[in-house]
Amino acid sequence: MNIILIGAQGSGKGTQAEKLAQVLGVLHVASGDLFRSAIAQGTELGMKAKIYIDRGDLVPDDITVAMVLSRLQEPDCARGVLLDGFPRTLEQAKALDRGLQEADRFIDTAVYLEVPREILLKRLSGRYICRANQHIYNINTRPPKVPGICDLDGSELYQRSDDQGEAVQKRLDIFFNGTFKLLDYYRDEGKLATVNGNQDVEKVHKDLVKAITDRL
Ligand code: AMP
């Protein structure tokens, strides 16, 4: 089972993807996490990507596609994956289809987690993640028990540079202007499901599971 979760920054995509991957028994592969770990390790790919990420721009398709397709070839992805943050452009979607086809695999469903822009802005400005494992908190809606410390692993919480200032607006513009075209692509293929992401976490989770299992 190969699923794509499409949603703007702050739509709850990361939180939902972790839960969903567990329930579906597939691996959660988040392109943003792959980039952040490459940056933390100081790899060449990480250094290249950091320039774009810090500005709030998309990393060029060739770099991104090569990184994700190579991750998908690793054995732990064989049972299926839940893709989070990738594809983000039409070119990436087509490259993903070609890459999967070569391995006799395909995308089952692309789910769009729909949240209005003004809600996204509010959520993003309060978002903090932990250094050790990228667990997600929100100082307004989902604060940690001890301020600044991750409940799950005790590591420090920080605000991503691209969750601050103008970078937030820019990333939302990119999503609503560009990534939106992806929805048409998967709709035309008969693979698109839409779930209302502006509900409580449990209800969104239930709706996501239903949207995916209904289509199997
Ligand atoms: P995310 O954690 O998904 O918000 O990703 C953080 C940043 O990594 C994005 O703002 C982009 O700069 C970069 N990035 C992640 N996934 C992609 C992608 N599929 N295409 C291009 N850039 C990406």
From TrEMBL:
<feature type="domain" description="Adenylate kinase active site lid">
    <location>
        <begin position="127"/>
        <end position="162"/>
    </location>
</feature>
<comment type="function">
    <text>Catalyzes the reversible transfer of the terminal phosphate group between ATP and AMP. Plays an important role in cellular energy homeostasis and in adenine nucleotide metabolism.</text>
</comment>
<keyword id="KW-0067">ATP-binding</keyword>
<comment type="subunit">
    <text>Monomer.</text>
</comment>
<dbReference type="InterPro" id="IPR000850">
    <property type="entry name" value="Adenylat/UMP-CMP_kin"/>
</dbReference>
<dbReference type="GO" id="GO:0005737">
    <property type="term" value="C:cytoplasm"/>
</dbReference>
<keyword id="KW-0963">Cytoplasm</keyword>
<feature type="binding site">
    <location>
        <position position="31"/>
    </location>
    <ligand>
        <name>AMP</name>
    </ligand>
</feature>
<feature type="binding site">
    <location>
        <begin position="10"/>
        <end position="15"/>
    </location>
    <ligand>
        <name>ATP</name>
    </ligand>
</feature>
<feature type="region of interest" description="LID">
    <location>
        <begin position="126"/>
        <end position="163"/>
    </location>
</feature>
<dbReference type="InterPro" id="IPR027417">
    <property type="entry name" value="P-loop_NTPase"/>
</dbReference>
<dbReference type="Pfam" id="PF05191">
    <property type="entry name" value="ADK_lid"/>
</dbReference>
<dbReference type="InterPro" id="IPR033690">
    <property type="entry name" value="Adenylat_kinase_CS"/>
</dbReference>
<keyword id="KW-0547">Nucleotide-binding</keyword>
<keyword id="KW-0418">Kinase</keyword>
<dbReference type="InterPro" id="IPR006259">
    <property type="entry name" value="Adenyl_kin_sub"/>
</dbReference>
<feature type="binding site">
    <location>
        <position position="36"/>
    </location>
    <ligand>
        <name>AMP</name>
    </ligand>
</feature>
<feature type="binding site">
    <location>
        <begin position="57"/>
        <end position="59"/>
    </location>
    <ligand>
        <name>AMP</name>
    </ligand>
</feature>
<feature type="binding site">
    <location>
        <position position="92"/>
    </location>
    <ligand>
        <name>AMP</name>
    </ligand>
</feature>
<dbReference type="GO" id="GO:0005524">
    <property type="term" value="F:ATP binding"/>
</dbReference>
<feature type="region of interest" description="NMP">
    <location>
        <begin position="30"/>
        <end position="59"/>
    </location>
</feature>
<feature type="binding site">
    <location>
        <begin position="85"/>
        <end position="88"/>
    </location>
    <ligand>
        <name>AMP</name>
    </ligand>
</feature>
<protein>
    <recommendedName>
        <fullName>Adenylate kinase</fullName>
        <ecNumber>2.7.4.3</ecNumber>
    </recommendedName>
</protein>
<feature type="binding site">
    <location>
        <position position="171"/>
    </location>
    <ligand>
        <name>AMP</name>
    </ligand>
</feature>
<comment type="similarity">
    <text>Belongs to the adenylate kinase family.</text>
</comment>
<dbReference type="InterPro" id="IPR007862">
    <property type="entry name" value="Adenylate_kinase_lid-dom"/>
</dbReference>
<dbReference type="GO" id="GO:0004017">
    <property type="term" value="F:AMP kinase activity"/>
</dbReference>
<feature type="binding site">
    <location>
        <position position="199"/>
    </location>
    <ligand>
        <name>ATP</name>
    </ligand>
</feature>
<dbReference type="GO" id="GO:0044209">
    <property type="term" value="P:AMP salvage"/>
</dbReference>
<dbReference type="Pfam" id="PF00406">
    <property type="entry name" value="ADK"/>
</dbReference>
<keyword id="KW-0808">Transferase</keyword>
<feature type="binding site">
    <location>
        <position position="160"/>
    </location>
    <ligand>
        <name>AMP</name>
    </ligand>
</feature>
<keyword id="KW-0545">Nucleotide biosynthesis</keyword>
<feature type="binding site">
    <location>
        <begin position="136"/>
        <end position="137"/>
    </location>
    <ligand>
        <name>ATP</name>
    </ligand>
</feature>
<comment type="pathway">
    <text>Purine metabolism; AMP biosynthesis via salvage pathway; AMP from ADP: step 1/1.</text>
</comment>
<feature type="binding site">
    <location>
        <position position="127"/>
    </location>
    <ligand>
        <name>ATP</name>
    </ligand>
</feature>
